[in-house]
Hints:
- Keywords: Amino-acid biosynthesis, Aromatic amino acid biosynthesis, Lyase, Pyridoxal phosphate, Tryptophan biosynthesis.
- The beta subunit is responsible for the synthesis of L-tryptophan from indole and L-serine.
- The chain is of the alpha/beta class.
- It has two domains: 145 residues, Rossmann fold (3-Layer(aba) Sandwich); 224 residues, Rossmann fold, CATH 3.40.50.
- The chain is built from 16 helices and 14 strands.
- The chain is globular, with a radius of gyration of 20 Å.
- Pyridoxal-5'-phosphate binds next to helix 11 and helix 15.
Amino acid sequence: MTNQTTPETTPETTPETIGYFGQFGGSFVPEPIQKLLDELEETFNRYKDDPEFLAEYHAYLKDYAGRETPLYYAESLTNYLGGAKIYLKREDLNHLGSHKLNNVLGQILLAKRMGKTRVIAETGAGQHGVATAAAAARFGMKCDIYMGAVDVERQKLNVFRMEMMGATVHAVETGTATLKNAVDAAFGAWMNDLDAFYVLGSAVGPHPYPTIVHEFQKVISVESRRQILEKEGRLPDAVIACVGGGSNAIGAFSQYVDDESVKLIGVEATGKGLDTHQHAATMEKGRIGVVDGMKTYSLFNEDGSVAEVYSISAGLDYPGVGPEHAFFKDSGRAEYTGATDDEAVKALLLLSKTEGIIPAIESSHALAEVIKRAPTMRKDQIIIVNVSGRGDKDVASIKDYLQEHPELA
Ligand SMILES: *Cc1c(COP(=O)(O)O)cnc(C)c1O
């Protein structure tokens, strides 16, 4: 997709109109793609409140993905930290081990309505690729997944999982051979086959994707709101989630946005530290520009090209961020902070040791913020932290990390 700091084209819409969150969002794509996005928007609007569509979507969430996911009171972690009561929203218990399937199921059911027979997706660590491959297998669609060659090497097990489910995984050798290049390659493949459906994995990209992804991930907070009211009879004081592109966070925040008393906190990866160049702190260090078809905060090099970013967690090392989060940052509705590699690994180990739950390294960034914040809060206050995924995929890299950093073990 076009990556530059100044828009190449002016969208038909003006800020504050459809497809925008304040000044953020929009759609900056070539004409043939814009046509497809218009078609997708029309399909989405037709089905998003359609009882039959929703019944099918919720049936798959229940019987295929395994929802609803529990809201678990982490009593042992709470006692250890000695402050606010901590509840975990267990997205790690979804089929395939993360929140990604919520969105993929919604998009694939739209693709089915549109008569599509082939899906294309990009993937970084492979979690979105695995979810897309699974849903494509279920609905008998041809599936092409684009993944940087470096990530293919780093995430061999996920590549094999996708292939077992019938997907073709394309290793992208251009540039740094990571997610950024995979996005460009997947987009190129779409340009070459406009009949294919692009399954987008986070709350990013051109309109209507951020809106669609929000809609299909909001189930996280629809459930957690009902669950916390059942368990505590009141709303939480804070909801905390990690932010890569921002899909698990937008789903975790969605149903609390109008409740002023609920603090919403997004946690980005500050990698090896904000004073290094090895981080993915888009909100903290980025500036406004156009990346992957949307206007948002992003990390750029001095020459205006999109920066290489870094995090121990492959799911968080994305240079941009969803436009709704950019808007929440500027409006002050949500607060964005960061956690380093070290802090995330410590948090992963603490949850494993206190609760017997090994979280994904991505989710561990949110848990690192809980460790900082809970002890400063009263015992009658409540935090909900979104555990976006399980950590099985990270065990080998955590083992390596601890060998290099024995002081953390
Ligand atoms: C992909 C992924 C993320 C990051 O993506 P968001 O769109 O920001 O949610 C976070 N956690 C897990 C477990 C993931 O797989």
